[in-house]
Amino acid sequence: MTAIPMLDLRGEVEQLSGEIEAAIRRVLRSGHFILGPEVEAFEQEIAAYLGVPHAIALNSGTDALLIGLRALGIEPGDEVVTSPFTFAATAGAIRLAGAIPVFVDIDPATFNLDAGQVERYLSPRTRAIVPVHLYGQAAEMDALSELAARHNLLLLEDAAQALGARHRSRNVGTLGHAAAFSFFPTKNLGAYGDGGMLVSSDATVADRARKLRAHGSAKKYFNELLGYNSRLDALQAAILRVKLPYLDAWNAARRAAAQRYDERLGALAEVTIPLRSPNAEHVFHQYTVRLPAERRDAVQKSLAAAGIASMVYYPQPLHRMAPFAQKSATFPVAEAAAREVLSLPIWPTISESAQHEVARVLKQSL
Ligand SMILES: Cc1ncc(COP(=O)(O)O)c(C=O)c1O
User: Fold this and answer.
1) Is the same domain home to 149 and 120?
2) Whole domain around residue 133: which residue ranges?
3) Sorting pLDDT into bands at 50, 70 and 90, what band is 2?
4) Among 6, 184, 288, which residue has the most ligand 1 atoms within 8 Å of its CB, making it the best to mutate?
5) Which residues surround ligand 1 with Cβ inside 6 Å?
6) What's the CA-to-centroid distance between 311 and ligand 1, angstroms?
7) In the Cβ-directed half-sphere of 161, how many Cα atoms lie within 13 Å?
8) Strand (E) or helix (H) holding 340
């Protein structure tokens, strides 16, 4: 039995059960289950929270990336620069849009795209960069924005793990031409099902995305684009509306929990605690340490034996996976990260005693 899971949502459900049940009843009584006023209200609330003019609610973060790429005008054969050290959906969306993911290695300290290496991977076919704000920390957006402007490239943020994070006091999701968020249940703002959001300051992009989520039509049965069925449902929107006002407090609680881990693990020679980039306000979707590669799996086993969950995000970089395989490519920093990372249990209400236990067992197993 796992005594300490990666994430425990029971406290949240308990805290909010009255509000959530009322929201669900409201939707059931409305008889309106797909898009509609609940979804529109949630779009407006996310737009206001981030300070962007347009928010388009979708089925998932994956669809937000795919529809975002297509709404930005990415065409089959275009090259799109991204990180090889991310969830498969990032490069999957690029491939599903018909484009070609071009991987660039990551920064060993932040696990995010190494902006200093991007330029040498650009070709006349490069159209966009998709930085990933991995684990909840903004990528190097100053350098990437400058590069994108200089080479006339589009910038789509994969902010699936980073709602509420900031970069130089600016909200993640407002730093490029568009951004994709995920409301997968484990995310910092999680639905009780799938959900996602595309945001953009560009009205044309927003208009295209709204069409693409509804089979490519603005007016029913008059389809202009080849689109998808990717609409958020009203129940998820209503639940997310209950949760959004708590997000900043939950993210602050995650930061406090991260700080407690730092204090317990920071002095151990074998453990590299997560670096905070000076420009980024981290929201600790994951608290991820580095361990010596030859010890990592044994540490994970010892934690499991003590009933403590941990996860390897991600054990294989994307250039090694069949859908994206690049036989001759090597990205040594991403490959080392895949062998060394371990994410520890974290959620807003994780107790100090649970964290103490995680740190104690980890230390013992080194
Ligand atoms: C970095 C990243 N990109 C994209 C996604 C896809 O989001 P979803 O699961 O909502 O499709 C996820 C989450 O699962 C993610 O972590």
Assistant:
1) yes
2) 10-104+112-245
3) low
4) 184
5) 60-62, 86-87, 89-90, 132, 158, 160-161, 182, 184, 194, 196
6) 16
7) 20
8) helix 332-340
Neighbour-count burial for 108-146, b at 16+ CB within 10 Å, e otherwise: bebbbbbbeebeeebeeebbbbbbbbbbbbbbbbebbbe
User: Measured from the CA of 132, which atom of ligand 1 is nearest?
Assistant: 1
87 Cα to the center of ligand 1, angstroms: 6
Residues in the chain: 366
pLDDT higher for 89 or 325? Answer: 89
Q: Does residue 5 fall inside a structural domain?
A: no
Spatial distance between the Cα atoms of 177 and 85, rounded to a whole number of angstroms: 22
Averaged over 255-276, what is the pLDDT? Answer: 97
Query: What would the pLDDT profile of 215-251 be if each residue is shown by its tens digit?
Result: 999 998 999 999 999 999 999 999 999 999 999 999 9
Q: Report residue 3: phi and psi, to 5°.
A: -80, -35
0.90 exceeded by the pTM?
yes
Give the pLDDT band of residue 325 (cuts 50, 70, 90): confident
Quick one: 195 and 271 in the same domain?
no
CA dihedral sign, ordered 154, 158, 163, 167:
negative
Is 95 found in the same domain as 199?
Answer: yes
Instruction: Look at strands 178-182 and 154-158 and give their pairing.
Output: parallel
pLDDT of residue 328: 83
Residue 141 and residue 35 in one domain? yes
Which of 161, 181, 230 for mutating ligand 1's site (highest number of atoms within 8 Å of CB)? 161
Measured CA to CA, the distance from residue 157 to residue 16 in angstroms comes to 30
In sequence order, the β-bridge partners of residue 106 are: 113
Please name the residue whose Cα sits nearest to atom 8 of ligand 1.
61
Where do we find the tokens 């080392």?
Answer: 336
350 inside domain? yes
Question: Residue range 155-164: average pLDDT?
Answer: 98
Domain-ending residue, one of 245, 262, 294: 245
**Of the residues 245, 273, 289, which one is the last residue of a structural domain?**
245
Whether 330 is in a domain gets the answer yes
pLDDT at 326 (0 to 100): 82
* CATH code at position 351: 3.90.1150.10
